[in-house]
């Protein structure tokens, strides 16, 4: 079976910037009244104002109500309800709703890679002994390599680190996978874990799901009980620092070469959040591999404060949204995909929100460093 090895913001600053309000007609008056109530902290009142125009199909009201359900402000958190509301608003031409709706679809089950991504996959199978495992592997590897090449032809580029099912070291029996994880945990160091964290984001994509599920549960239990391993993972997660520095927390940009005056949204923005949250999720034995779902479960268990969790989610989604918009623009212009952007090309508001998003990633890393005394 293939495995996929995916890789207070003013609590709500990004949300405040993304609320939609109208200024003409009765329905729009209700939408604006809801925005005013929201800005004053009356989230339940805002939801009441938006319910009627949303039921009537007002796209701004649908979008704002979706925001409320996504963050659990004035209503219980309900991602499925939020997604449905975003979809309705997007169908009526609401561009912000379309952006976030697309983002939510990518986020389901750690589908967080947007348009530009490489492959991270492997195969798990059952074998009664080593001889049988070797025989099965020799049969599977040619097919796995064909699939890797076919995925590359579809735009999912080959992994530079060869973390793919066509690699014999990633086409393993259940016992071999267990031994591999045991060794990974036992011999972990901040250096050799830099690229191995993704192995702990197991997700079954085809075949007998139970093989992947049982493997994941065994691995999670071992990781949950091993504080030394968690500390090493935390140290590794702190290697990618958000690109902020100086007295006024300005962006830290590349200073030379073709990348001059740019920053990497994935490595310096998303990775600090994804990797930090992964460590906390491992410490709790959380099975979810989606970053945002991990945050929600960590909030539910009291590991992350709710306002902090909301801020981390908002930061993550804003950075991911910028990344997806960049990839869409590159695709339309026939350019090679890149996660690097020129912050000076963003408008003033987006630069401010991006800076605050990076600050939330810094806060998450600071809390991780404190937790593990790093």
What's the order of the H and E elements? EHHHHHHEHEHEHHEEEHHHEH
Please name the CATH topology of the domain at 237-371.
Four Helix Bundle (Hemerythrin (Met), subunit A)
Judged by helices, strands and strand pairing, the structural class is alpha+beta
Q: Main sheet, how many strands, which sense, barrel?
A: 4 strands, mixed
Average pLDDT value? 84
How large a portion of the residues is in β-strands, by DSSP E? 5-15%
Strand order of the largest sheet: 3-2-1-4
Text of the CATH class of the domain at 237-371: Mainly Alpha
End-to-end C-alpha gap: 38 Å
Rg of Cα set: 22 Å
| Number of E-type strands | 8
Give me some keywords for this one.
374 residues; Serine Threonine Protein Phosphatase 5, Tetratricopeptide repeat; Four Helix Bundle (Hemerythrin (Met), subunit A); two-stranded antiparallel sheet; 14 helices; 6% strand; disordered N terminus
Give a short synopsis of this structure.
This protein is an alpha+beta fold.
